[in-house]
Design goal:
alpha+beta; 9 helices; 21% strand
C-alpha cells in the first residue's frame, strides 16, 4: 500500500491545474486518510528520497490529509522544491442553499470556489430524512450552469461560506461515523476535497 501511494503521485509534477491535483489525490488517498501508521512511513520515505514527485505528493498531502499526517507532510514538503501548482491559492465564492426537505426530503447546497480566474463549485445533496447525511457530492467547473439548474428545481437563498460549511461539517461527521451507510461514490472520492474546504471555512 505504501508503494501504491507513492506510485499514485507519479503524474502530479506534470499537472498544472491545482483542482485536478486535489481530485486525483482525494480519490486515491481518501480511503486511507486516517491511517497514521501508513502516512508516517510514506512521509518519511518521500522526505528521504527528494524528487519532483516526492515534492508534489508531499505538498498535496499537506493540504488534504487531516490531523498529524498533514502536519508531517507539510514539514517534509518545506525541505523540497515547490510544484508548479499552488493549492494555497484557493479562494471562496458565493454559497447557495435550497430547501426541499418538506416535499423531497433533502437540502441542496452549492458552494463556489476559485483558483485564480478558474472557478469551480461543489454541489451537495443532504438527506434530511436520514439524519442530514450527505448522499451526493459532485464537483463542476460550470458554476453558472449548475446554479441555473438548481434554480429550475427549487428556490435558492444566499448563505455565508461559514454557515454553509458548518452544515457540511455536521453532515460529514455523521457520514464518517457511519461509513457503511449508502452514499454515492462521488462522496467518497471527493471527501478530502470537501473536508479541506470545510476546515478552511471553519478556521
Amino acid at each position: 500500500m505504501q508503494q501504491a501511494v507513492v506510485d499514485a503521485g507519479r503524474p502530479l509534477p506534470q499537472l498544472t491545474d491545482p483542482l485536478e491535483v486535489e481530485l486525483q489525490v482525494s480519490a486515491f488517498v481518501g480511503p486511507f486518510a486516517d491511517n497514521e501508521e501508513l502516512w508516517e512511513v510514506v512521509v518519511r520515505h518521500l522526505g528521504e528520497v527528494p524528487s519532483r514527485r516526492s515534492a508534489a505528493l508531499l505538498t498535496a498531502l499537506a493540504h488534504l490529509l487531516p490531523g498529524r499526517p498533514g502536519v508531517w507532510a507539510q514539514e517534509a514538503a518545506r525541505r523540497q522544491a515547490e510544484p508548479k501548482w499552488d493549492l494555497g491559492a484557493l479562494t471562496f465564492g458565493e454559497c447557495w442553499i435550497g430547501d426541499r426537505s418538506i416535499d423531497a426530503g433533502y437540502l441542496a447546497l452549492l458552494c463556489s470556489y476559485s483558483y485564480g480566474d478558474a472557478p469551480h463549485a461543489m454541489v451537495f445533496m443532504i438527506d434530511e430524512i436520514s439524519g442530514s447525511l450527505t448522499r451526493h457530492a459532485f464537483l463542476t467547473r460550470q458554476v453558472g450552469e449548475a446554479l441555473a439548474r438548481l434554480r429550475d428545481e427549487m428556490r435558492l437563498e444566499l448563505i455565508t461560506p461559514v454557515a454553509a460549511h458548518w452544515l457540511l461539517s455536521r453532515s460529514y461527521d455523521r457520514f464518517e461515523r457511519r461509513p457503511g451507510l449508502g452514499v454515492s461514490m462521488d462522496v467518497h472520492q471527493t471527501r478530502l476535497v470537501a473536508r479541506r474546504r470545510i476546515a478552511l471555512a471553519m478556521n
